[in-house]
Amino acid sequence: MKLKKFSTFVVTLLLVFSSLSACSSDSTGKEEEKEKDDEAKANFNEEGFPIVNDQIKLTFVAPSSDSPDWNDILIYNTYKEMTNVDIDWQMISQEGLKEKTNLMLAGGDYPDAFHSVGLSTQDLITYGGQGVLIPLNDLIDKYAPNFKKILEENPDIKRGITMPDGNIYSFPRIYEPDFDAVLANWKLWINGDFLKALDMDEPTTLDEFYDYLKAAVNNDPNGNGKADEIGISASGDGNLINIFKGSFGLGNRGIDHKYVDMDPETNELRFIPIQDEYKEMLQYLNKLYSEGLIIEDLYTVKSEETHARGADGLFAATVTTNPQTGYGRDEYIGAVTLEGPHGDKIHSNYGSPLNNVGGFVITDKNQYPEETIRWIDYFYSDEGSKLFFMGVEGETYIENEDGTVEYTDLIENNPDGLTRTEAISKYLTWRAGPYPAFVKRDYFGVKTSNEAAEKFKENRPEEVWPPFNYTNEESEIMSSVGTDIEDYITESQAKFITGKTSFDEWDKYVETVKKVGLDQYMDIYQDAYNRYLEQTK
């Protein structure tokens, strides 16, 4: 009995010592952790540069494309000196980028942040909900004054990046809200030399545009004795439809919602592809196509073929961002918004200032979220936008006496024979992927595009919706039923335009769209729209 009592006493004593030791160890660990936190706080500057006094290192994943390795490129070498933040750029080829990114996120082998990989809204909802991507609301409020200001001045942008759970998980690409030239990226251009040769005025209606195309194709305005003129050039019908549907009163909420807008008579959501006005638009495009006034290989033409024809000045009209930079032609003029048969003149091909929602995200592995937020926030300031798009003063750009900036000969007339695009990509990274930054008129764009936008900006939709965000359950339905509907529409409209399907089949087409699941599609759209409205309150 005495032995048993002694043994019990020893065990109890050991447990006490063990407990005290554990407490001591735990206390020591907490003290060490506190010291590290204090050191990190002392190293971090909440304002100004450098962001940290002693250099820190972060790992970002980014897409590789025309630019060299971002670990040694002018823009980030310069920014590293400014911030004291050293980024280890893990470059992944554009091919398979989305698949590799998703594998990283799902498998747990991911970096501190993803830059320019273009995560989808669904990715943000999924991985944000799992805690892989950290919510940024509080960090933005405390450490991102430039981005915060944009959100305060543009509540639509804030609504667009706020997920259904109320969190913001990403920094997007944002266009200056009055930068019409990029908001209406793809534009309709008309060959000014052809107009002069044909002694015709610039068309202002769909009928006048038809007459111009017909004259251009049949009357040899380039004067070479060959019937080689092409009416209107485009690659596929998507941009054609986005541009012309506004002449039929459709697309009054912009191209981020190409299938749904607001019925002006009922103020209810309207599914565009089954409207009678949509049928009229397809009939107009069919008329152009059947008479040889739209490029014959509309659905099969390769970009290099389009570039070669454009460089030869063969297009009477073209749908592109800018023929001057794309084809090296300066005779094209931006078209006005063409008036339709019922007097409609909506320039429907407008996007929201919010573009590429998932441009930059921070993961839960990041030990320096505050520093990272400050790092990315700079590119939403005026000076940061200038650095991102123009580079370093005296090397890649100069500032004129009037305050305007322009690229140096290193970009415009590269001594190594690089094209403008190649030279930009050698020193800057904005041509790669859906980058996170604030796109400002002063540092981005081409003069001719701005001039073109002046002619149609008064016809922009009164309200342009940013993309809506769906819950996981809604996304599953939209990716199944929604995709089936949209695929059927894409296939059908091509057949209507080319004449492979008669317009006598229109009612059958509408009925099929409804049967595939249009009611469910529109119910989800309505719920997403309601949430969008709710965020305004």
Name some characteristics of this structure.
alpha/beta; six-stranded mixed beta sheet; four-stranded mixed beta sheet; 21 helices; 537 residues
Task: Please outline what is shown here.
This protein has 537 residues and is of the alpha/beta class.
Architecture overview:
The protein is of the alpha/beta class. The chain contains 21 helices and 14 strands. It has helices spanning 2-43, 74-83, 97-107, 121-129, 137-143, 145-153, 155-161, 180-183, 192-198, 206-218, 238-244, 276-290, 303-311, 323-327, 369-377, 382-390, 409-412, 420-427, 447-454, 472-498, 506-534, and strands at 56-64, 85-93, 113-119, 171-175, 187-191, 230-233, 260-262, 269-271, 315-320, 332-334, 354-362, 397-399, 405-407, 438-439. The strands form four sheets. It has a six-stranded mixed beta sheet with strand order 2-1-3-11-4-14, with helices on both faces. A four-stranded mixed beta sheet has the order 6-9-5-10, sandwiched between helices. β12 (397-399) and β13 (405-407) form a beta hairpin. α12 (276-290) crosses α20 and α20 (472-498) runs antiparallel to α21. It starts with a helix and ends with a helix.
